[in-house]
Amino acid sequence: MASLRIETELETLRRSDRYRTLQSGDRVIDEMGAWICVNGVQLADFSSNDSLGLSQHKVLKRAAIDAIEQYGTGGASARLIAGSSRLSERLEETLAQWEGMPAARLFTSGYQLNVGLLSALAQPSDVFFLDRQCHASLIDGARVAATNRHVSFKRYRHLDMQDLTRCLEKTPCTGQRWIVTESLFSMSGGISDLSAVCDVADAFEGRVIVDEAHASGAYGLAHRWSGLVASQGVSDRVALQVGTAGKALGSHGAWVAGSQDLMDWLSNTCRSFIYTTALPPATLAATLAAIDLLKTQDTLPRQLHANIDYFWQLMAACPQGHPGLKPPPSPEARAHIIAVVLGDNASALKASDALQAAGCYIRAIRPPTVPEGEAMLRISLSAAHSKAQIERLCDVLLEMPALLLK
């Protein structure tokens, strides 16, 4: 009976163009750009979150290999049993300093961190207020907290401080108000005005949690590049900062930074920290190497931002543009994540196929990742992309309306 139900549901997904499949590819970064080989065909990779190309960097590879030689391959145990090492403690100290926070705690993935974080923080009568475009891990964390801790959560319109204010005014709360946002949103590429978020939070005695998953390593102050919290000058106004090593830092894992008391609380109450095996030595060493690299040289982040500017320069040179591509309101609002909203699922899939046929690898993003009727192409620029790759991408995007009619 269960098998029949699953078959029926899968067929429903297929008919609505929401069925997903894995597409294997081998990624390569060379002097000609960032590539992925799919079914024997080399394509320009505009889907990866490896925004600085560090996953292929010789310094990170060497650090990982040396760590394996010295410490072995596995995390061995949960951190509270036998999995806490000098390497993990050194990385946590480095991350805390990098984030400008008193302490940090490592997790094995960003999803595990966010789900565990919100449910561990929540106390009865607390309320979470989440931007409507917050990542699924934050939404799921709020849902777990609502179920297990008897708290409530509200979602406000994307980047809309007036709507956040209205939600705070209309929602009774006898506990703690937690305002949760991303600094750089993973699908739209929208950038938060974190000072404005903190201003609203302060007016209601709320505490701010910022997920910097897509900003860590790619944005920030020179020779730091820890994210938008630092570059927007709100480190002392944010209660908790979340970061990940699996994107710009080219490694794996995640962390949260905040007060020592909050880190100790998570070590004692956060189930996704307590009941999971520690990160392996190679991962810890690669992340340390990435941060050390960014502290000593700005070349890769600056190249990423030069590539972002070059993309928009090329698109601005064509007056007709693309109907699904909305230019940012200012250069400061430009991000390496660029959404091309096409609407229906079939159009997004057709556009993805057309781009792949033209040599550009960009996957279609469909519900439930984005709202119904907002299926899109998600472009992710990298410091590793060559000008020729970006020029080809822009040419194909401008041709796309005609391609979709074929």
Describe the structure.
It is globular and about 55 Å long. Helix 8 links the parallel strand 7 and strand 8. Helix 14 crosses helix 15 (387-405). The protein starts with a helix and ends with a helix. With 406 residues, it is of the alpha/beta class. The model has no long low-confidence stretch (mean pLDDT 94). The longest helix is centred in the C-terminal third of the chain and has 19 residues, at 387-405. It is built from 15 helices and 14 strands. The strands form three sheets. The protein has a seven-stranded mixed β-sheet with strand order 4-10-9-8-7-5-6, with helices on both faces. A four-stranded mixed β-sheet has the order 1-2-3-12.
Number of helices: 15
List the uncertain runs.
none
- Fraction of residues in β-strands: 15-25%
Structural class: alpha/beta
Major beta sheet, specifics? 7 strands, mixed
What Rg, in angstroms, do the CA atoms define? 21 Å
The geometry reads as globular
Q: Tally of extended strands?
A: 14
List keywords for this structure.
15 helices; 4-stranded mixed beta sheet; 14 strands; 7-stranded mixed beta sheet; 406 residues
